[in-house]
Design goal:
alpha+beta; Membrane-bound Lytic Murein Transglycosylase D, Chain A; 4 domains
């Protein structure tokens, strides 16, 4: 019989005004860390971390001290940080192997060995192994009384001339909207559509918008182009077979597929498990094409993350299925409805 034990621990830390500059600007690498995860936690970029620490690659090691900020001034209280660590244990049964257990729980062999301090592959029935380990950090900003603090003002969109677009095979509203930097509702309103249904050869009016500052346009276009590239690269891999731990067009597993596609699109991303991508991603309630979608192994195991894919819009996502390889599926399918866990954005 499988036995799972979930343990949780939570700690709250108030950042202190008496803290030294070293505490504010350096970080000690822990087991399971990656440059991407550290950058996300400290609101910086991988490129900045590598520049501050003169790193020529993404390789880091446990207990390595990394600079995460250029600031040397004494900080003032700004945030309360809440940390929650969650682990799930599994009881080994006769016939189990480390690889079999890792595969079943959607983690890597290296993670399983590291979490349980195993130097070899020897295990025995009844032995309890940690098969899921995650730490969620939430920073709550304290009020700031700064009358000079600037507030970013949203620039209203002003309708200009319309562009006509002819629907092609494989198109759907959210993909077209993403390509032109408008919303699905904008397209539906401009074309008097009452649903998201479109057909090949249909001509759609695309309402352009003006009023955004010229200097913002390249950045917005670059972001849109990256997402379009992610989706394009993902669709190129349709039909590639499933391969456990695979991350190349000769075979993918779910996280390897995401890693490959985002790297091809120009993102700085590390090869991680689906559960780690879930932990490091930003929670999304209104998903956009290019966001990541996650699933649990069963309806009653929502605390585990075992599968992931790339959201395409209109409740569709593309993923490396263990049974059919890279394919497009719908969130409306019963199997995925029961196992859906949430969306995240890298």
């Amino acid at each position: 019989m499988k036995k799972h034990i979930v343990t949780l621990s939570t700690a709250a830390v108030l950042s202190s005004g008496l803290a030294t500059s070293a505490m504010a600007s350096t970080y000690t690498v822990k087991s399971g860390d990656s440059l991407s995860k550290i950058a996300h936690a400290h609101n910086t970029s991988i490129a900045k971390l590598k520049e501050l620490n003169q790193l020529s690659s993404d390789v880091i090691h446990i207990n390595q001290k990394l600079k995460v900020s250029e600031s040397t001034s004494t900080p003032t209280p700004k945030t309360v940080t809440l940390q929650k660590t969650s682990t799930v244990s599994y009881s080994v049964k006769s016939g189990d192997t480390l690889i079999k257990i890792a595969n079943h729980h959607g983690i890597t062999l290296a993670e399983l060995q590291d979490w349980n301090q195993l130097s070899g592959h020897l295990i025995y029935p009844g032995q309890k192994l940690v098969v899921s380990k995650s730490t969620n950090t939430t920073a709550i900003a304290l009020p700031e009384n700064d009358p000079l603090k600037t507030v970013e003002k949203a620039t209203p969109k002003v309708p200009l001339s319309d562009t006509s677009y002819t629907v092609k095979k494989g198109d759907y509203l959210s993909l077209i909207a993403s390509k032109y930097g408008v919303s699905v509702n904008d397209i539906k309103s401009a074309n008097n559509l009452t649903s998201n249904t479109i057909y090949v050869g249909q001509k759609l009016k695309i309402a352009k918008a003006a009023g955004t500052q010229a200097e913002d346009t390249p950045a917005l276009e670059n972001a849109d182009n990256k997402i379009a590239t992610v989706i394009s690269e993902a669709k190129k891999q349709i039909g590639v077979p499933y391969s456990w731990a695979g991350s190349s067009p000769s075979g993918f597993d779910c996280s390897g597929f995401v890693y490959y596609v985002f790297k091809k699109a120009g993102y700085q991303i590390s090869r991680l498990s689906s559960s780690t991508y879930f932990d490091m991603g930003k929670k999304v309630t209104s998903p956009q094409p290019g966001d990541l979608v996650f699933f649990s192994p069963a309806e009653n195991k929502k605390h585990l993350i075992s599968h992931m894919g790339i959201y395409l819009g209109d409740r569709q996502f593309i993923h490396a299925s263990s049974s059919k390889g890279v394919r497009i599926s719908s969130l409306e399918e019963t199997y995925y409805q029961k196992r859906f866990t949430g969306f995240r954005r890298l």
